[in-house]
Amino acid sequence: MMNQLVKVTITVLLGFMFTFCADAQNQALSVDDVLVIFYQRNLDLIAARYNVDQSVAEAVVAAAIPNPSVSFQLGELSSTNLNKGSSATGCNHNSSVSCGPSQYYSFSQLIEVAGKRGLRVQSSDFAIQAAESDFRDAVRIFTNVVRTAYYQLLQMQKNLWLAQEIVDHYQVVTEANSLRLKSGDISESDFLRVKMEGVRAQSDLDSAQSAVTMAQADLAVILRWPERSLQFEAKEQWPEIKDMGQQLTPDELINKALSLRPDLQADKLRAEQADKQLELAKRLKYPDVTVTGGYAKDPSNNALDSGFVGFSVPLPIFYQYKGEEDKASVNLSQSRVTAEQTELAVKNDVISALATWSRADKIVQRFKDGLLNDALSVRNSSELAYSKGATSVLDFIEAQRSYKNVMRDYYAAEINRATAYYNLEKALGVDNSTSKDFKIIKH
């Protein structure tokens, strides 16, 4: 009897050692570690960053002052008589002496009127701010995508650990039942029922291992499959619950989100940009002026050396840029409608996320307030009673199943609580310590 118990103990210890060695080969990562890998490798966020650079480049173009034009002309060229005997003041009037060709030097500068350049600058500034808000919104969204995959992996791992615990437990019980069967304490049918439950537990362990592998693959896809991605192991790290205003009224939370959400800020900024573009389109009918000045050396004139100055203005007679104005007006209306739709979506996100968080938090508290201890107590008392022959094998098996189901439900509730917390953070647009590392610098 003693030798049999020693063998059982050694078997269990070896099982734990093998499990530990297998886990030691994995690379344990926190959720922040995974986020760092994601942001280093994700092409979508890099592309979003390029959109900001493009907006900055367009702002440089919008603020540019038109370049001046310089021209030079030679005239009155002749192979036989190159202004010989010119009567212009400053020329030699001898008919055999050439005074040279006429020469014209001019300088032209376009002058924009009606504040068009200033409106373009203001419009481009709004575009830059909107692109920066888009980038922050991409961080907000992608951060939650990574976290969801991370906690999905953690849930599968915890199910795997639970399945391994139950397999090990049934191994111990089966070994003990073998001794009881030999001594006649239990029937063979009861022994086989417990043994079959152990086989079922092993099947659950195989399924749990497969689920972990698939969860690792899902996370690897999001991380663009870094090295050793199928050996990544999620640490049991839960979010540090901070006060984001969970105790505020729904209206107060909505107002907070409306002031923080980067997607709404981006849409409002684009509406402001569209307003400036409409004002710019209205001012296109005010023609810009081109001022020209220059110097002429013309032997055919009365004076050889002279200067000139002038200006030119396109007359908006046949076309007065009505099409540009109508197009800008439509764009402004669409931008405002988009901002209004986003505002409605923000309100819905906040209410939904708050309700989900409240429910998830209460469920976890119920487990911690006694349900977990109750399930463990029922399992242990049932096992003790079964070992003494005071309860049936069916009651023993049912207690084991109840314990497994309660623990799996508890793990799911913890995961749901973590994701609900981060979803509330996402809905409110609250910055977190990780996303701050990826903020862009305002230009």
Keywords:
single chain; 443 residues; alpha+beta; Outer membrane efflux proteins (OEP); two-stranded parallel sheet
Structural notes for this entry:
With 443 residues, the chain is of the alpha+beta class. Helices cover 67% and strands 9% of the residues. The relative contact order is 0.13. The protein has two domains: 2-64 and 118-285 and 320-436, Outer membrane efflux proteins (OEP) (Up-down Bundle), CATH 1.20.1600.10; 67-111 and 286-319. The protein is built from ten helices and six strands; from the N terminus they run H-E-H-H-E-E-H-H-E-H-H-E-E-H-H-H. A four-stranded antiparallel sheet has the order 2-3-5-6, with no helix packed on it. Strands 1-4 form a two-stranded parallel ribbon. The two termini are 79 Å apart. Helix 4 (116-183) runs antiparallel to helix 5 (188-222), helix 4 (116-183) packs antiparallel against helix 7 (262-283) and helix 7 (262-283) runs antiparallel to helix 8 (322-387). The protein has helices at residues 2-24, 31-41, 43-63, 116-183, 188-222, 250-260, 262-283, 322-387, 393-428, 433-436; strands at 27-29, 69-75, 102-111, 232-234, 289-297, 305-312. It is elongated. Strand 5 (289-297) and strand 6 (305-312) form a beta hairpin.
Give a short summary of the structure:
The protein is α+β, with helices and mostly antiparallel strands and 443 residues long. Helix content is 67%, strand content 9%.
